[in-house]
Design goal:
Elements (H helix, E strand, L loop, with lengths): L33 H22 L10 H14 L3 H13 L7 E3 L1 H8 L5 E3 L2 E5 L7 E6 L4 H4 L7 E3 L17 E6 L5 E6 L2 E3 L5 E4 L5 E6 L6 H9 L7 E5 L8 H9 L7 E7 L5 E4 L15 E5 L6 H11 L4 E4 L8 E6 L5 E11 L14 E2 L4 H5 L4 H11 L16
Parallel strand pairs: 10-11, 11-14, 14-15, 15-18
Antiparallel strand pairs: 1-17, 2-8, 3-4, 4-5, 5-6, 6-7, 9-10, 12-13, 12-17, 16-17
Helix pairs in contact: 1-2, 2-3, 6-7, 7-8
């Protein structure tokens, strides 16, 4: 995601609560007097409300009476006594749009996002909102060697938040104990005191060449440099080597990096989507040949791995390759959160993410609220993960191996329009 006041167009998931509570804040939010807090709340609310009214991609705002929303939510926002309460109000209001990209991230979460690829204080868990328990979070993964792993925290536990409890809207500082209210999968309370430690960042892109005849390109996010990295990994790759692009758990990212990835596999100028901003003027999107230093797309057989946490750019990419007949998609149906969004910095250091354009594939499919359906369904259970099994990856390897001998990988590609 961009760090400028207005980021480059992206397909990144907007909910800041998708971020892991794993980073030390370089500078904590200042302590405000009640009057200063009210004034700051007013500035933040008015900017969020005003940007939605004037810049949201749908000028009808999905039928929401935005003036009425202001009357309901502004008094609550001004009365909020902390960031958590303020951003709960903002997200409730933005939730009226029924748009997974519309969200506001509080300052502490933004600080963690901005230092995602730097050494940072960590407890070592990633979280996603728990729809069955509003305000709580499900533990999506636990990092090896982290304080959370040492304490016995496991995937599938729930982090309970509430009055007096730690929540992702608060900072994490190395050496400062935080009290966490976990609930295990059997519903038993598991309160833990964890002390964050500084951990090295995990790479956004990883190439796994441990299997003969297969390279697995794991992409955690469509972050700056992805196109150049993928071009390097694909350069001089033997034509018989199968390529698997793993987009599971990928929340999306920069549009230009998604375009670069598609240029690694689609012919230059091939149409792959259309986006429509607030003005209503349609913009045709074509493969631009921007895959690092490659002169053209590779012809290797390709599979793409996706799951229910693949969002935005991690949905449009497999959809475009699937429609073009260029890749086999394996895994689980994706999240269905595919709108072109931009981010704006808020006065308190928070961040607003807002959809600025609609998106339709070259085949006329609107993926928002629909997602991508894999060619082959495959999902890993918790037991599979604990045992080191990966059914989706194995299914992708098998699907590529079963291709008819001599079949040309680009044979099914649609002509440029």
């Amino acid at each position: 995601m961009g760090l400028a006041l207005v980021a480059a167009p992206s397909f990144a998931g907007a909910r800041a609560t998708d971020e892991a509570p794993a980073v030390a804040a370089p500078t904590a939010s200042p302590v405000l007097s009640p009057r200063e807090r009210m004034r700051m709340n007013q500035r933040v609310f008015d900017q969020v409300w005003g940007e939605v009214r004037t810049q949201y991609y749908d000028p009808r705002l999905h039928g929401v009476d935005w003036n009425a929303a202001r009357g309901v939510y502004r008094p609550r926002a001004l009365a909020a006594q902390d960031d958590r309460t303020l951003y709960v109000v903002l997200d409730e209001m933005l939730g009226l749009l029924d748009d997974d990209h519309a969200g506001a991230a509080p300052p502490a979460v933004v600080r963690r996002q901005d230092t995602l690829r730097q050494p940072r204080a960590a407890i070592g868990v990633t979280l996603r909102p728990d729809p069955a328990h509003p305000g709580d979070y499900t533990i999506e993964s636990v990092r090896r060697g982290s304080p959370a792993e040492a304490a016995g925290v496991t995937e599938g536990w729930r982090l309970h938040t509430g009055e007096g409890l730690w929540s992702p809207e608060q900072d994490v500082v190395a050496g400062r104990v935080i009290n966490l209210a976990f609930v295990d999968e059997e519903g038993r309370p598991r309160p833990l005191d964890l002390t964050p430690v500084v951990m090295e960042p995990q790479p956004a892109f990883v190439a796994d060449r441990s299997r003969p005849g297969v390279v697995v390109l794991k992409v955690d996010g469509f972050e700056p440099g992805l196109g150049r990295w993928m071009g390097r990994e694909l350069a001089d790759l033997p034509p018989e080597t199968d390529v698997i692009v793993d987009l599971r758990g990928n929340p999306g990212g920069r549009l230009m990096e998604a375009e670069a990835v598609l240029s690694c596999f689609l012919p230059r100028d091939q149409v792959w989507a259309t986006r429509t901003p607030r003005s209503g003027r349609q913009i045709v999107m074509r493969a631009g040949g921007g895959c690092g230093e490659l002169n053209g797309p590779v012809a290797n057989p390709v599979a793409v791995l996706v799951d229910g946490d693949s969002r935005s750019a991690a949905e449009l990419t497999p959809a475009a390759l699937q429609e073009a007949g260029r890749a086999t998609v394996v895994g689980e149906r994706t999240a269905g959160a595919v709108l072109v969004s931009q981010e704006t910095r808020l006065p308190d250091g928070g961040r607003l993410t807002l959809s600025r354009a609609d998106f339709v594939t070259s085949g006329g499919v609107r993926l928002e609220k629909r997602g991508v359906t894999p060619d082959y369904e495959a999902a890993a259970t918790r037991e599979d993960r604990q045992a080191g099994r990966d059914p989706a990856l194995q299914a992708a390897i098998s699907a590529l191996a079963a291709r008819p001998q001599g079949e040309t990988a680009l044979a099914g590609a649609a002509p440029a329009l």
